[in-house]
From TrEMBL:
PANTHER family on file: 6-PYRUVOYL TETRAHYDROBIOPTERIN SYNTHASE, PYRUVOYL TETRAHYDROBIOPTERIN SYNTHASE
Requisite cofactors: Zn(2+)
Enzyme Commission no: 4.2.3.12
Cofactor binding, note field: Binds 1 zinc ion per subunit.
Keyword tags: Lyase, Metal-binding, Tetrahydrobiopterin biosynthesis, Zinc
Active-site residues (renumbered): C40 (proton acceptor), H87 (charge relay system), E131 (charge relay system)
UniProt signal peptide: none
This protein's pathway: Cofactor biosynthesis; tetrahydrobiopterin biosynthesis; tetrahydrobiopterin from 7,8-dihydroneopterin triphosphate: step 1/3
InterPro entries assigned: 6-PTP_synth/QueD (IPR007115), 6-PTP_synth/QueD_sf (IPR038418), PTPS_Cys_AS (IPR022470), PTPS_His_AS (IPR022469)
Residues engaged in binding Zn(2+): H21, H46, H48
Protein name, entry field: 6-pyruvoyl tetrahydrobiopterin synthase
GO cellular component: mitochondrion
A biological-process GO annotation: tetrahydrobiopterin biosynthetic process
Taxonomic source organism: Picathartes gymnocephalus
Length: 147
């Protein structure tokens, strides 16, 4: 490999936050919500200790040897994830969830959209949200075409 050839790498960093929510869709009746979401539809909500892994992708800079400075990534994650979500009631404290069910899938979308506004364009690769040790959502910014 010549010295001029670029190498791509993926860099990941994790963060945790605690939040509560209630899985409840305004499009469904109370009975339908209970049927669909079960105990997660508890009117008083329930909480999780979420773990989020953010992965960025890019060329390894030949001078710094980095895809991105981890200190910068840490600050972006603090602003996009911890500040708006930690110790919050997602449904009541985060405007995004006033019309969107606060599923882990939608939490991942919220985080993706928030990070994309802060990070250098095109570097965000993946957002992985661990709601529990067993439940994980991976989102890469993909959308479907409305038919």
């Amino acid at each position: 490999m010549s010295p001029r050839s670029a190498r791509l790498a993926r860099l990941s960093r994790s963060v945790t936050f605690s939040a509560c929510h209630r899985l409840h869709s305004k499009s469904l009746s109370d009975e339908e919500n209970l049927q669909l979401f079960g105990k997660c539809n508890n009117p008083n909500g329930h909480g999780h200790n979420y773990k989020v892994i953010v992965t960025v992708r890019g060329e390894i800079d030949p001078v710094s040897g980095m895809v991105m400075n981890l200190t910068d990534l840490k600050e972006y994650m603090q602003e996009a994830i911890v500040e708006p979500l930690d110790h919050k009631n997602l449904d009541k404290d985060v405007p995004f969830f006033s019309e969107v069910v606060s599923t882990t899938e939608n939490v991942a979308v919220f985080i993706w959209d928030s990070l994309r506004k802060l990070l250098p364009q095109g570097i965000l690769y993946k957002v992985e949200v661990h709601e529990t040790e067993q439940n994980v959502v991976v989102y890469k910014g993909e959308e479907t075409i409305v038919k």
